[in-house]
Amino acid sequence: MRRYSTDGGDPARRADHGSHAPDGAGGPTAAEGRPETSGRAAPEPPEADGYAVTCTGLVHTFGETTAVDGLELSVRDGEVFGLLGPNGAGKTTAIRCITTLLPVPAGTIRVFGHDAAGERMAVRRLLGYVPQQLSADSGLTGRENVSLFARVFDVPRRERTARVGQALAAVDLTDAADRLAKTYSGGMVRRLELAQALVSAPRLLILDEPTIGLDPIARTNVWEHINAVRAATGMTVLVTTHYMDEADQYCDRVALMHRGRIRALGTPDELRTGLGERRGTAGNGELPTLEDVFRDIAGSGLDDRSGEFSDVRSTRRTASRVG
Ligand SMILES: Nc1ncnc2c1ncn2[C@@H]1O[C@H](COP(=O)(O)OP(=O)(O)OP(=O)(O)O)[C@@H](O)[C@H]1O
Ligand SMILES: [Mg+2]
């Protein structure tokens, strides 16, 4: 049985995934030592291409709004990949397509080689998802919430009790497991949602703003639990966040999305160094921050529409107040 451990995590751990690949391609990095999944076995990928996710030409529209506009994205097996971008960039829409919750009207998505349009159940069995919106039921206990997900995600009946207990333990909620979720703090609720997503032992964990609104200690705590499970299982993590410091510290690679497309991709260091070189400040000891890179991309007038960046900044100020 695949077990979660909370003692093997190093929050600062970063895998070495080689060099920057601007087109989203690059050498595949297979996670080493991945334990076998038990019970409802995850389907074997039809091709071992080294990627957890590949999106090619993905388009998704809501009426007149093109939320995702020809997205090209590759997430390597085993990495922590951060999808950043201003409000409305299309991050959640892209993620909901990857999770098969939204259809794929144009383009293709593959999750460990499985087509998200044609093999939806195979894809769903491979992933865990913490949505941007609250997904825990406040009227249920922590244990009941995780049990519900175990049933929905088809964890075999005979394994459910143990797997629910392991998932709760992995996020340090054993002691609070039988309290109603409405008595939890914000950080505990987010950890509960993490347990819900982990109970199916996913190969790919997708987190949409997992730390929004949490205090700095709770944010670190959530990341420590993510990294502990990752260290134990080798799972891939795809995460969105508006906290640039988190992306810098915890992500192997980040992509900056703006108006439905990826505008920059690389390791945090590569993106910061790249901006320093463009500004001619590289080498003077003052490397730009990831926030500078974000401002540069989101405010650079990449298309003919302008005036959005001040809105983004004001939204982010609001978010930081909430946080
Ligand atoms: N269900 C929906 N119906 C109509 N429009 C939508 C819907 N969901 C998203 N949109 C629009 O699609 C665009 C992309 O939204 P999305 O939620 O994907 O952005 P995001 O990058 O996740 O933003 P945020 O950082 O605020 O979460 C926005 O213009 C949004 O208004
Ligand atoms: Mg979103």
From TrEMBL:
<feature type="compositionally biased region" description="Basic and acidic residues">
    <location>
        <begin position="302"/>
        <end position="314"/>
    </location>
</feature>
<feature type="compositionally biased region" description="Basic and acidic residues">
    <location>
        <begin position="10"/>
        <end position="20"/>
    </location>
</feature>
<keyword id="KW-0067">ATP-binding</keyword>
<keyword id="KW-0813">Transport</keyword>
<comment type="similarity">
    <text>Belongs to the ABC transporter superfamily.</text>
</comment>
<feature type="region of interest" description="Disordered">
    <location>
        <begin position="300"/>
        <end position="323"/>
    </location>
</feature>
<dbReference type="GO" id="GO:0005524">
    <property type="term" value="F:ATP binding"/>
</dbReference>
<dbReference type="InterPro" id="IPR027417">
    <property type="entry name" value="P-loop_NTPase"/>
</dbReference>
<feature type="region of interest" description="Disordered">
    <location>
        <begin position="1"/>
        <end position="50"/>
    </location>
</feature>
<dbReference type="InterPro" id="IPR003439">
    <property type="entry name" value="ABC_transporter-like_ATP-bd"/>
</dbReference>
<keyword id="KW-0046">Antibiotic resistance</keyword>
<feature type="domain" description="ABC transporter">
    <location>
        <begin position="53"/>
        <end position="284"/>
    </location>
</feature>
<keyword id="KW-0547">Nucleotide-binding</keyword>
<protein>
    <submittedName>
        <fullName>ATP-binding cassette domain-containing protein</fullName>
    </submittedName>
</protein>
<dbReference type="Pfam" id="PF00005">
    <property type="entry name" value="ABC_tran"/>
</dbReference>
<dbReference type="InterPro" id="IPR050763">
    <property type="entry name" value="ABC_transporter_ATP-binding"/>
</dbReference>
<dbReference type="InterPro" id="IPR003593">
    <property type="entry name" value="AAA+_ATPase"/>
</dbReference>
